[in-house]
Amino acid sequence: MAMCVEDRISSFPDPILCHILSFLPIKEAVRTSIISTKWRYLFASMSTIEFDACSMSGLTDRNIDSFKNFVDRLLKSPDQVRLDCFRLSHMICSWNDWNDGDHDFDISGWICAALCRGVKEIDLQLSYREDILPAVLFTCGSLVTLKLDAVGHNFKFPSDVCLGNLKTLHFRDSFFGDSVLRFISNCHVLEDLAFIECDFYTSDINIQTPSLKRFILDFNLGEFADLKYVVVINAPNLVYFQYTDAVAQGYTLSTMKSLEKAHIKICGFDTIDSQAIAAHLIQGICNVRSLRLSINEGIFRTSQLPIFHNLIEFEFLGRGFNGREIWLVKFLHRIPNLKTLTLNFPVVAGAQWKALEVPSCLSFHLKEIKISCFNTHMIEMVSYFLDNAMILEKLIISMDARTNMTQKKKARNQLLQLVKSSKKCLKLVVIL
Question: Could you list the residue ranges that cross the membrane (predicted)?
Fold first, then answer.
């Protein structure tokens, strides 16, 4: 006797089913239309619509027009519900190949259709054409999130920008002049701003946005980049700040009293000029509670740096410059209340750890140390911390993957034999 299986999913209300479909690739969502008459047109009411390389894979020249017409109907039907998210991703190669005059995708029209449906988030990863972004995109009252990846395009924004509800604005792989700064200044409730792998051809990057809570300048141009601009940031309510680049011409940062976390990856030459300029960058984040610092030279002269009274978590990545161990200990003297220290850099033989003056944070506040890429040259460094970290509770050591198992076991035995001065019950974890 055949068992009757109850279809409980189909009994859900349509809004819940549409929400479930929004998590599926568009092809899979459309295929659900054959389940039953109830499912036939549900995919057309999805609140999230995404087209990516998978959506377009396998299309031949004969059915490209069918795909284009399907998207037109899906987005432009007058009976559609409001749209939460519209995303075009990873279509660079495909779109260039198919926009040959015979198959012209109406990307601008698709964007306009999404805007007409009150879309809240637009995420575009496209090769750029001058007519691809409609002017109405920059005056949309419903837009909360805008992410643009235009593959090396030189962006120029209209002067009449009005995005009253925009809170998240991300750019990737693009070039900018002064118009982007005017654009940002007209986004009065902006909270999350990111420039990733971008570049500026302007005299300064001037961000005056009191509402900003998260800001990323991740240019990653390398240590030989010649930055001609000055970085000016007035964002007193910033909670997260990331800067990845060479040393700029100058920095002017308002005091960020609310700053919780910062990630600074900066490269440059160890010169008097770069030290003085870079110090201004660090001075602006002196209230931070968690700092991840990656440098390739001693471009921060510790005597020029402020005291980080609020800093309780510090991760250091010293990328191959001489004397980084001495620099690290000097910097720890500027962090009196540090509780967690993470070290991720190779140590070479010869560092005189026992001769270094002990920072007060080791004696009174440091509770946890994490060390990555451990090699045998780090034994003396670990001994230094164990000798002086008086209230240390946990030490986590991850062995370098390039070390063979015999060396790892030998190093572990050496670590277990080190003298511990902590008055707490110390937990030592060695990850082979």
Answer: none
Asked if the structure places residue 336 within a domain, the reply is yes
Based on its alpha-carbon atoms, the radius of gyration of the chain, rounded to whole angstroms, reads 27
Phi-psi bin for 324: left (phi > 0), alpha (psi -120 to 50), beta? alpha
Q: Are 248 and 277 in contact (CB under 8 A)?
A: yes
10 Å CB burial of residue 339 (0-12, 13-18, 19+) is: middle
Backbone angles phi, psi at 398, to 5 degrees: -110, 125
347 part of a folded domain: yes
Across the range 369-396, mean pLDDT stands at 89
> First CA to last CA across the chain, in angstroms?
57
In-domain check, residue 132: no
106-159, pLDDT tens digit by residue? 788 888 888 988 899 999 887 655 557 888 898 999 999 999 887 767 777 888
Task: Sheet with 204-208: list strands edge to edge.
Answer: 204-208, 230-234, 250-253
Dihedral pair phi/psi, residue 353, rounded to 5° = -65, -40
What pTM was estimated for this model as a whole? 0.84
Tell me which residue range forms the domain holding 357.
307-431
Residue 282's CB: how many other CB atoms inside 10 A?
A: 22
- pLDDT tops 80 at residue 398: yes
For residues 300 and 323, the answer to whether their CB atoms sit within 8 Å is no
Which of 13-22, 182-191, 350-359 is the least confident region? 13-22
pLDDT digits (tens, 9 = 90+) for 58-108: 656 666 666 777 777 777 766 666 788 888 875 544 444 445 455 567 788
Checking 411-420 for CB contacts under 8 A at 24+ apart, the result is: 411/374, 411/375, 411/376, 411/379, 414/379, 415/379, 415/382, 418/379, 418/382, 418/383, 418/386, 419/383, 419/386, 419/387, 420/386, 420/392
Q: How many domains does the chain have?
A: 1
pLDDT of residue 149: 86
Sign of CA dihedral 372, 375, 376, 378: negative
